[in-house]
Design goal:
With 245 residues, the chain is an alpha/beta fold. It has 10 helices and 7 strands. It has a 7-stranded mixed sheet with strand order 3-2-1-4-5-7-6, with helices on both faces. The protein is globular and about 55 Å long. The termini are far apart. The structure holds S-adenosylmethionine (SAM). The site of S-adenosylmethionine has 20 residues, from helix 2 and helix 4.
């Protein structure tokens, strides 16, 4: 491999990722979530998850949905972007699971009846980074969850955007201009969510694989760093925030 310039990148344009490069996102998420300790931690946080129905909001290409389905009785994946949704359907069919369904929709308009699920889970999806976003989105999520159930939000703690390469991608501050991670942690904690942080490693097949997925998403500085340091795995810290309903 040579210089970073020869590799394509979407430079953290997330909306473009989900519409034009859903296949690359799928590769990234597969490496990120397969057998991740985040899901066993959710299983420990939510009482008796094995008997429960989950709504996963922002299910993307279904990698997080498939992991949740290992622990829950049934998972309904809700996803607004057609390109992501199409890949999720294929991934779920290929996995041969019968305890998963996919529906098109979003956190703002949940295609579910009132109190129809035990747990609502968002994995790196719906932003609760301002009080206004939380005030708009939480009541709709709350509407669909049975009393006695829970809402679980998997995100990143402050300074962990892009995982261990936060400084390479964002500079010394390790913080995006919007500081979505810091603000979301603050908002959820003000609303009474508890949280638990979990470390996990995203393992790619090779440096080329890491460049083509992680590098494609996070940009040229990340690509250069992966190549120069012969890196094929990335350490992440995730923040699991949860609230009893
Ligand atoms: C980073 S991906 C995560 C996908 C999947 N949960 C995973 O972990 O691989 C974020 C996903 O959330 C979806 N999303 C963004 N805003 C949303 C909203 N308000 N309601 C539902 N889904 C949303 C996007 O379309 C995208 O598929």
């Amino acid at each position: 491999m040579s210089t970073a310039e020869q590799y394509p990148t979407v430079e953290q344009n997330w909306p473009r990722m989900y519409i034009e490069f859903a296949d690359v996102y799928d590769r990234f998420a597969d490496r990120e979530w397969r057998d991740s300790p985040v899901y066993s931690a959710i299983d420990e946080i939510v009482d008796e998850l094995g008997g429960q129905v989950i709504a996963e909001i922002g299910s993307g290409t279904g990698r997080s949905t498939l992991e949740l389905a290992k622990y829950a009785r049934f998972v309904v994946g809700i996803e607004p972007e057609a390109a992501m949704w199409r890949i999720a359907s294929k991934n779920i069919e290929r996995a041969g699971l019968t305890n998963v369904a996919l529906v098109q929709g979003s956190a703002d308009h949940m295609p579910l009846s009132p109190r129809s699920v035990d747990v609502a889970v968002c994995v790196m999806s719906v932003a609760f980074d301002t009080m206004q976003h939380a005030a708009e989105r939480l009541p709709e999520i709350y509407r669909t969850v049975k009393r006695g159930g829970s809402i679980v939000v998997v995100g990143l703690p402050p300074l962990w955007y892009a995982g261990e390469l936060a400084e390479v991608v964002l500079g010394e501050s390790r913080t995006t201009p919007e500081d979505g991670e810091g603000r979301q942690s603050e908002v959820l904690s003000k609303l009474g969510f508890m949280h638990h942080d979990i470390d996990a490693t995203q393992t790619f097949d090779s440096v080329e694989d890491a460049v083509a997925a992680y590098g494609f998403i996070f940009g040229r500085n990340a690509i250069q760093h992966l190549i120069e340091n012969n890196m094929s795995s990335i350490r992440w810290r995730f923040r699991i925030s949860y609230l009893d309903v």
